[in-house]
Amino acid sequence: ITGRRCGSYENFQGELDACLGPLLSGQGVTPAPVWLSEFGTDVRDNYWNYIIRYLEDRRLDFAYWSINGEKRFNESETYGLLKDDNAAVRHPWKLKMLQEVTREM
After folding, report:
1. Is the bond preceding 8 in cis, omega lying within 30 degrees of 0?
2. How far apart (Å, rounded) are the C-alpha atoms in residues 74 and 58?
3. Which residue of 85, 100, 101, 102 is most buried, as measured by CB atoms within 10 A?
4. What pLDDT digit, counting tens, does each position of 39-72 carry?
């Protein structure tokens, strides 16, 4: 699912719920632990906003991809939370939103 393709949040939510929903809710369902792993972006678009909202709405645990600033020597990891120096924050908006999601859990 990408932000450009999902349209509304409801469509995005519906796509993920079709896969994860039976694990999270339903008649006679004991919610299972669900871990959303290795998602990331370098732009604040619909996909980013929707995935953060989905994490909050469904109270899912997650692993963000990635923290490092380099993919390999002299090649930036633009999804990384850190810049190439592996110390400075690349996208403060992203770090702030991830911190807010973890506080709400």
Report:
1. no
2. 38
3. 101
4. 889 999 999 999 999 999 998 999 998 899 888 8
